[in-house]
């Protein structure tokens, strides 16, 4: 389900000003509206104390203390936005962050997404206080980042990102906010578009590694753009960035901004629209701006598609794309961003948090290793197949689909699309210390699907009655039968108390908006999840009850909790042992289940009161910020 960090810090915050209460968390506690009001009241322009203009903000190596310093005022009539915001507003400067700029250019295709990152109502005109703010997604929550208006320049020109319109600055200030979030401009040098895609949307990124015969790619890209996914492509290189004879830049990131099929005689041509974040240097091959093939198309098609302008944007045929590009990166948006009625169907998001600790649960990367099982483990159950689509290539053209339960009618196999993404916290910030991203990954194993035993399902239905749901007393009655010692393990006690059953309901009832949190009841599909976990917990309990006493001591409890996915420090383990042990200082199976249920309820997302823990995890130290009333709910659970 979830796991705690090795170090847990709880910080009590003001009841009204608690982070996450009604919006993004202010980065470094800087509130945009408060800063703006204070500056206007004092008649001064904001100067950011946390990211002051100077060499330290520029970087640590090539842009370090001996590099060009920021200058004074260099634009007489600046504007935040000139007319509108478009992908031509994002042109790369001398910083090697094309991955970030290509993502920002893609973001301009979707105003609803763009305005989330770049809040409206900002400018250099009325009520100007020298302060701007932007919102970025970081590790499960949105943060609001404040910046001042001082930008790095050289000889009167912006050093880094700029707009085609020289007095437009929204993109430059967004770049500064990103640099502030990670410590300096220089740490932005080099990266992958999906990093920025995720930071702009809170979505889930995936990478498609291309080959010449990649099946269904055009359909996948067309559907991704229709679902408002952000899409980019990279022309990989083993010797850095360099320009080819046909106008492409190897080792460079491009935005994929559109798809189109055109008829050329009896031939269907599949075209992709790409954009170079430099705002110049375009493809000169087939279907480029000056290619004569456009003349063979009807005038209305040509007028709708072709823009003859040196703006970095161009069309390219799919087969040429496959010859020159190595990867496609797609960021699928979350339900929070897409809203209640997403264009291409909905997603369910589940977030798990964990860490590898040397000598404790870093079990290695090879499944055959004896310690591999100690790695953090998370279980997913796929219940809802994808919607049927008419496209012969399937909804994702054969990408990222997992089969479920065998063929359906007509020989089709139902599929349930799953995207798995692994995020490392705060690694880009550590570049100044000589550290970079760790080489880590994950394995996906297919676990056998167990339907409930027929007798157990029938017992559930008899106890549930017409409501088809169990309350705590009915659940206790069912478990007293289902967990009979002889049926599982002769030394495992069968009794699960009413209080523990209430805790289990709290953990496994799915909150779908129609059920109240209080007076919970358990539907059949909820009980299937609960039963699967109970069986796993029984196996863990029996494994670490090494003396076959039917109880565990504190050391055995630590090992059992670790195997269940909770990695806790000594202090927290001792507190849990004290709370759940009996008069003989031992923990039996029912007390172990209660302990695990309590941890799940504290750390799971979406739980009222106690669920605020996971929403306030901040930074690499596992800091939890709670109001006093929230803390009391946790402490008195």
TrEMBL record:
Pfam families: Calpain_III, Peptidase_C2. Residues 387-409 are annotated as: Disordered. SMART domains: calpain_III (SM00720), CysPc (SM00230). The keyword Hydrolase applies. GO terms for cellular component: cytoplasm. Keywords: Calcium, Hydrolase, Metal-binding, Protease, Thiol protease. GO terms for biological process: proteolysis. Residues 532-567 form the EF-hand domain. The active site is at 98, 252, 276. GO terms for molecular function: calcium ion binding; calcium-dependent cysteine-type endopeptidase activity. Belongs to the peptidase C2 family. This is Calpain-12. It comes from Pteropus alecto (Black flying fox). The lineage of its organism: Eukaryota, Metazoa, Chordata, Craniata, Vertebrata.
């Amino acid at each position: 389900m979830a796991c705690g960090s090795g170090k847990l810090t709880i910080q009590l915050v003001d009841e009204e000003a608690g982070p996450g209460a009604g919006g993004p968390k202010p980065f470094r506690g800087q509130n945009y509206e408060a800063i703006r009001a204070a500056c206007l009241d004092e008649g001064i322009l904001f100067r950011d104390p946390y990211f002051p203009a100077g060499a330290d903000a520029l970087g640590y190596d090539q842009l370090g203390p001996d590099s060009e310093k920021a200058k004074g005022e260099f634009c007489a009539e600046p504007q935040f936005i000139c007319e509108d915001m478009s992908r031509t507003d994002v042109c790369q400067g001398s910083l090697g962050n094309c991955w970030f700029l290509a993502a920002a250019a893609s973001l301009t295709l979707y105003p609803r997404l763009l305005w989330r990152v770049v809040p409206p109502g900002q400018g250099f005109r009325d009520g100007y206080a020298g302060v701007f703010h932007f919102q970025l997604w970081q590790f499960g929550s949105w943060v609001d980042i404040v910046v001042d208006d001082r930008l790095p320049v050289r000889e009167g020109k912006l050093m880094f990102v700029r707009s085609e319109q020289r007095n437009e600055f929204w993109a430059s200030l967004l770049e500064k906010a990103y640099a502030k979030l990670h410590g300096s401009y220089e740490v932005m040098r080099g990266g992958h578009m999906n990093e920025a895609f995720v930071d702009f949307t809170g979505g889930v990124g995936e990478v498609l590694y291309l080959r010449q015969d990649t099946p269904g790619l055009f359909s996948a890209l067309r559907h991704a753009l229709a679902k408002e996914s952000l899409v980019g492509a990279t022309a990989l290189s083993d010797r850095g960035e360099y320009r080819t004879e046909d106008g492409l830049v190897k080792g460079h990131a491009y935005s994929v901004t559109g798809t189109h099929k055109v008829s050329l005689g009896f031939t269907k041509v599949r075209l992709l629209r790409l954009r170079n974040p430099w705002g110049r240097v375009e493809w000169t091959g087939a279907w480029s701006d000056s290619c004569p093939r456009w003349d063979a198309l009807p005038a209305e098609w040509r007028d709708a598609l072709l823009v003859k302008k040196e703006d970095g944007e161009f069309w390219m045929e799919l087969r040429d794309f496959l010859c020159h590009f190595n990867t496609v990166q797609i960021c699928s948006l979350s339900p929070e961003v897409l809203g209640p009625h997403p264009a291409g169907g909905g997603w369910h998001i589940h977030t798990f948090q964990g860490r590898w600790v040397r000598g404790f649960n870093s079990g290695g990367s090879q499944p055959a290793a004896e310690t591999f099982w100690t790695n953090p483990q998370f279980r997913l159950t796929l219940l809802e197949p994808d919607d049927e689509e008419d496209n012969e290539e399937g909804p994702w053209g054969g990408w990222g689909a997992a089969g479920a339960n065998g063929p359906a009618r007509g020989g089709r196999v139902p599929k349930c699309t799953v995207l798995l993404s692994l995020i490392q916290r705060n690694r880009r910030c550590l570049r100044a210390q000589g550290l970079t991203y760790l080489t880590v990954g994950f394995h996906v194993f297919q676990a056998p699907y167990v339907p409930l035993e027929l007798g157990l399902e029938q017992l559930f239905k008899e106890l549930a009655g017409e409501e088809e749901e169990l309350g705590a007393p009915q659940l206790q009655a069912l478990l007293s039968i289902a967990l009979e010692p002889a049926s599982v393990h002769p030394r495992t006690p069968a009794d699960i108390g009413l209080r523990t059953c209430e805790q289990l309901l709290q953990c496994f009832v799915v909150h779908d908006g129609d059920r109240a949190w209080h007076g919970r009841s358990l539907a059949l599909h909820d009980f299937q999840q609960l039963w699967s976990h109970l069986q796993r917990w029984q196996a863990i309990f029996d494994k670490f009850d090494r003396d076959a006493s039917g109880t565990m001591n504190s050391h055995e409890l630590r090992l059992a909790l670790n195997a269940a996915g909770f990695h806790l420090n000594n202090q927290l383990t001792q507190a849990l042992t004290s709370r759940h042990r009996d008069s003989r200082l031992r923990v039996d199976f029912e007390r172990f289940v209660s302990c695990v249920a309590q941890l799940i309820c504290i750390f799971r997302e979406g739980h009222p009161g106690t669920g605020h823990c996971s929403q306030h995890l901040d930074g690499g130290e596992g800091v939890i910020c709670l109001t006093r009333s929230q803390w009391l709910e946790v402490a008195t659970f």
